[in-house]
Every structure is written in C-alpha cells, then in structure tokens.
Amino acid sequence: MHSMTGCGSGKVQQDGWEVTVDLKTVNHRFLDVSMRLPRHLAFLEQTVRDCISRKIKRGHADVFLTVKRTDSSAMTVESDPELAKLYIAAAAQIAGQTGVTNDMTVSRLMKMEGVLTLNEAEMNEELVSAICAEAADIAVEQLAQMRAREGANLKEDLKVHLDAADELRQAILKRAPLVVDEYREKLETRLKNLLSEPVEPQRLAQEVAVMADRCAIDEELARLDSHIRQMRKYLETDGETGKKMDFLVQEMNREANTIGSKASDAAIAQHVVDLKSEIEKLREQIQNVE
pLDDT tens string for the chain (290 positions)? Predict the structure, then answer.
C-alpha cells in the first residue's frame, strides 16, 4: 500500500550540465502532473512525465526543474565599446549640466544594459534530456520510497479503525436477537394487562414475527462483514487499491445507514453512531491511498 503524499529530489551533473528535478505529490483521483517550464526547456516535459508515470499511478504531482550549465568554456563574453563610450559621454554630460560628481567606473559601466553580452553554446537537447531522465528517475525513486513509508503508516491506522468497525458489527450482531426476545416479553406483558383472556401463542408469534421481519438486519450485517473482510485483503495487496477501498467504504456506510434506519433499539442505535464514526475515519484516510 502506498500513500499519495510524498516528495523527492534528484540532481545529476554530467558533461557540463547540471539538472535538478524536485517532485511533490498530494492525493488526487488520477495521475495529474503539473509543471511550468520556460520555452527553451519545453522539450524536457515529456521526459519527466514518462519517468513519473512509470512508478506513480495516482496523485497530483508538482514538478520543479532547473537546468544549469557548469562548463564555463562553453560560454563567451562580448563587449560593445561603442555603446560604452555613449554611456561615458552621457554620464559626463549629466555631470557637467547638474554639477554632480561623475563617478562612472568600469565596474559600473559593465553593469549597463548591452555593454556586455553572455553567449552560450547551443544546448545539446539529446544530452540534456538524458541527464534530465536520470535526475527524474532519482527523484521518482525517492518519492516512491516516501510514499511507501507513508503507506505503511496509513495501513496500520486503517487496521485500527477497521478492527473497531468490526467489533461494533459483532456487538450489533450479538444484540439483534435479544431485541426480538425483549419485544416478545414486553408484548406478552402488555397483552396480558389489556386482555382478560389468556394470550394466544399463535397471535403472539405472528406479532413478534412481523416485528422481527421489519427490523431484520441479518443481510446488512452479512454484507458489512463481507466488506470488512475484503477491506482487510486490500490492506495486504500491492498496487492500486485506493479507488476500490473508497468504493467499499461507501458500501459500508450504506449498510450502516440501513441498520440505523431499521434499529428500534437504543443500544443498536448507539453502536451504529459509533460505527459510522469509524467508517468516516476510514474514508478520510483512504482518500490518500494510491
């Protein structure tokens, strides 16, 4: 079991280039990769998406990508002396007209727009793409390991709530037959007080049968038991189980609602309230299961 929450980072330096890929994922219904790249790096987007989709199946992923040139020999600096002279002349003119000190220096002149131009050799897209793929694989592997650790924690938490839900199911199962017996006793006592003649066993049995049929929750409890068993299997299953578990928890809630609507007993009604609370906790946690 894997969580959909995690992060990972990969950095690779090779042949004068440094590529860094940072990933962060949160829960989402399907795999949704979000990345904003400058136009000159747009060719790397599919490379990163492919690396992510090979290991990550669900979750919203934010991708942060940086590409740096580390080989200074591939860069040259050109100066524009004529433009520099214009800046110097303009500075002298302003100083003469305003009376302020002309403090133009070479270092300041070099910062003026257009005086210096940095030229870089053309990017080898095939090489940078290969380096990017390696960095992305490292980031994805870190991400997958973190999601696995988070998934293990989720699994233990889900087990706790699933065990609690099963205990409540068993409590309801144990209580249900007693409700019918208690109803029979109360009905018999009431009829004896109202009627002067002895209560007919057949009539009493019919009334109890009607009540028992109206309040029967055997099928709902059986289905709830089946859902809990299936949920336990999913907890021990590798791969994508989040959507399946989400469906099961919806079915569990449906059965709990039906039991609650049929319950004519305060103890069962309280068990149902507690059961729905555990189911809601399961639902919240399952939203983050891949």
Answer: 899 999 999 999 999 899 999 999 999 999 999 999 999 999 999 999 999 999 999 999 999 999 998 887 667 788 999 999 999 999 999 999 998 999 999 999 999 999 998 777 688 899 999 999 999 999 999 999 999 999 999 999 999 999 999 999 999 999 888 776 665 666 556 655 555 556 566 665 666 555 555 667 888 999 999 999 999 999 998 888 999 999 999 999 999 999 988 877 889 999 999 999 999 999 999 999 99
Q: How many CB atoms lie within 10 A of CB 166?
A: 18
Range 6-72+124-147 classified under CATH 3.30.1330.10: no
133 CB-near residues (< 8 Å, 6+ apart): 47, 50, 51
What is the pTM for the complete model shown? 0.73
Determine the Cα angle at 271 with ends 265 and 272, to 5°.
90
CATH for 149-286?
1.20.140
